[in-house]
């Protein structure tokens, strides 16, 4: 949406908390997995993979919530 002076109006963007938290877990997992591989620490690498999987699931749940919220609005 444009305002009279050609400025853009601020848009309200809502993202479910599960999507944000899931994305952060995914990033954290990627870092842990990479660090585990670099250091030869299979436990840390495995923890990273688990964090990534949990983050992807949580992100997907948030996406579903966003989709239902969009249909209600």
List the total number of helices: 2
Backbone structural class: mainly alpha
- What is the mean predicted local confidence, pLDDT? 86
Number of domains: 1
Measure the end-to-end span.
19 Å
List the secondary-structure elements in sequence, H or E: HH
What is the total tally of β strands?
A: 0
Main beta sheet, described?
Answer: none
| Shape designation | elongated
What would you note in describing this structure?
It is a single chain. The chain has 73 residues and is mainly α. It has one domain (17-72). Helices cover 74% and strands 0% of the residues. The protein has 2 helices and no strands. It has helices spanning 17-39, 42-72. Helix 1 (17-39) runs antiparallel to helix 2 (42-72). The longest helix is centred in the C-terminal third of the chain and has 31 residues, at 42-72. The chain is elongated and about 60 Å long. 12% of the residues are buried. The model has no long low-confidence stretch (mean pLDDT 86).
């Amino acid at each position: 949406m444009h305002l009279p002076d050609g400025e853009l109006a601020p848009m309200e963007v809502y993202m479910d908390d599960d999507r944000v938290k899931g994305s952060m877990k995914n990033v954290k997992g990627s870092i842990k997995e990479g660090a585990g591989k670099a250091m030869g620490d299979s436990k840390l690498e495995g923890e990273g993979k688990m964090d990534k999987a949990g983050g992807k699931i949580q992100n997907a749940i948030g996406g579903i919530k966003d989709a239902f919220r969009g249909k209600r609005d």
